[in-house]
Amino acid sequence: MKWQDLTRSGNVEDLRGSGGGLPIGGAGISVGGLVLALVAGWIFGVNPLTILGLMDSGSQQAPTTQRGEAPPDNDQQAQFVEAVLGHMEKTWKVILPQRFQPAKLAIFSGAVQSACGSANSAMGPFYCPPDQRVYLDMSFFKELETRFEARSDFARAYVIAHEVGHHVQNLMGTSDYVQQQRARQSKAQANQMSVKLELQADCYAGVWGHYAQRDNLLEPGDLEGALTAASAIGDDNLQRQSQGRVVPESFTHGSSAQRVKWFRQGMTTGRPESCDTFSAGKL
Predict the structure, then answer these.
(1) Are 106 and 99 in contact (CB under 8 A)?
(2) Distance CA 203, CA 165 (A)
């Protein structure tokens, strides 16, 4: 991916090196519940705080972890994050000129305190609506390569674009709508709403990808890497690996085929209107 010459975002906060490691746990969360959420976050990759029911309209506080030292000049991963986030901000400002406001992206190591509660790197990248921040432990990129065999720059960018997609949903009121619906549904129905939310975020990631491709940023193998990542973190694939069987009614992010389908949808159309997973007859 040709990212080196992109304008860097000024919304990346580097919290690494602060020495602010956090105890695992939070008010009102049982140890068992937290362990379950961590395991689920490890398995399903993104946005695990929904499992804990922490995605509410609470305080707008910033992360309490102190800012760490700025990354060194040769920190290629941090530069990559700043570059692709800058392009995503530019893209979404064009698509939604009246509504889009950039999210902050906090890079952390090990653990961090967000407005959604304490978060551990085992949860994977996530977006917290109350403080409108994406949280990313760089170690997840290594996991993406070694566990999921998704090695292209565009695969890493897809992860960030998915979380920015959740930010777009928050700005559009979609996240609040889903939380309200989930609160009065059965577990199976609530899971299905989560699937629709996640697949829409995949589609929004593809919308950005459409513009990245239009701007000639992709190189050979980039798209295949992103599709590999989308497929690898499908619920069916991960359940099959972790428990040897697939339980569709417990899906929270969508199957491999669904994740690839909706990412491709956004890539093909470049239009967020094409990402209406909520009225789609068949996901």
Answers:
(1) no
(2) 8
- Residue given tokens 């910033």 in the structure block: 62
Q: Give how far Cα 215 sits from Cα of 32, 218, 269, Å.
A: 47, 8, 15
Helix 76-95 × helix 153-172 angle, to 10° = 40
Q: Contact, 132 vs 169, CB < 8 A?
A: no
For the chain, give every domain's residue range: 12-275
105: tokens are 């992206």
| 18 within 8 A of 114, measured Cβ to Cβ | no
Cα(first)–Cα(last) distance of the chain, in Å? 30
CB atoms inside a 10 Å sphere around CB 197: 27
Q: What is the DSSP string of 136-174?
A: EETHHHHHHHHTT---SHHHHHHHHHHHHHHHHHHHHTH
State the CB neighbour count (10 A cutoff) for residue 192.
Answer: 20
Per-residue pLDDT tens digits of the chain, which is 283 residues long: 999 999 999 999 999 876 444 433 333 333 333 333 433 443 334 344 443 343 333 344 555 444 444 556 678 999 999 999 999 999 999 999 999 999 999 999 888 999 999 888 888 899 999 999 999 998 888 888 888 778 889 999 999 999 999 999 999 999 999 999 999 999 989 999 999 999 999 999 999 999 999 999 999 999 999 998 888 888 887 788 788 888 888 888 989 889 999 999 999 999 999 999 998 677 8
Q: What's the pTM?
A: 0.82
